């Protein structure tokens, strides 16, 4: 199909983009376009104005600041994959990016677009929850920092305020004693997840000091399985505890029934993905 008529503006800076959002009612930002443009072609979205932010260089790049990795919102999936900083200090993001769509999409698709679009099937929102990331947002009132946990409110709905832009994502460096895993069940290469679960575990000796279990595409938005985390936190994790946590994962799921499976199937697959990710994270954390 052909999208409805719209105006096009190319922003020259972050402030210019914010000003353009304020000047054009119901306008949308154009990043990689792989989520927005298909919706426009199907007339599911009909923004009267597109504001192209691809030319804003300050929204790109990956840098290390102490124990924090700062990632520009317009950084592409392939740039995540190729980043030596991420390969060394946060390989979970590299693994997740490799599971996004196909090479053509990864050349253009951006991490910021994936996060703010609000599709529960997107990979990065759950990864941001597992990494305990912080989102840097900028709008007419200046800059603010928003924890990823609490940002995702529903399908295509988040805590981005009017005329705000996601400018940067900040994730902690993976330290010694911290491990990660991301298991994703999909029907074919490049597809959205039937169910997925990124997990980050921090060990103190054999005891689980902290754990974050996130879930992809089994609720209206990416979620943390906090009851499952509470089963494992502060304990020496064994198979019996993992099974208790898996039961809590199933209880946390609220998936939409579609061609990828019914509610029971998706919920049980989410539990299986969490099991695999927990075990992978524990193995890494133990060195």
Task: From the structure above, extract its key features.
287 residues, alpha+beta, Uridine Diphospho-n-acetylenolpyruvylglucosamine Reductase, domain 3, Enolase-like, domain 1, 3 domains, 11 helices, 14 strands
Write a structural description.
The chain has 287 residues and is an alpha+beta fold. The protein folds into 3 domains: 7-52, Uridine Diphospho-n-acetylenolpyruvylglucosamine Reductase, domain 2 (2-Layer Sandwich); 63-172, 2-Layer Sandwich (Uridine Diphospho-n-acetylenolpyruvylglucosamine Reductase, domain 3); 183-285, Enolase-like, domain 1. It is built from 11 helices and 14 strands. The chain has helices at 14-23, 36-41, 77-82, 84-89, 91-98, 103-108, 111-117, 124-131, 226-232, 239-252, 263-285, and strands spanning 7-10, 28-30, 49-52, 62-65, 68-72, 134-139, 142-147, 152-154, 157-158, 165-172, 178-185, 195-204, 207-215, 223-224. Strands 4-5-10-6-7 form a 5-stranded antiparallel beta sheet, with helices on both faces. Helix 9 (226-232) packs antiparallel against helix 10. The protein is globular, with a radius of gyration of 19 Å. The model has no long low-confidence stretch (mean pLDDT 96).
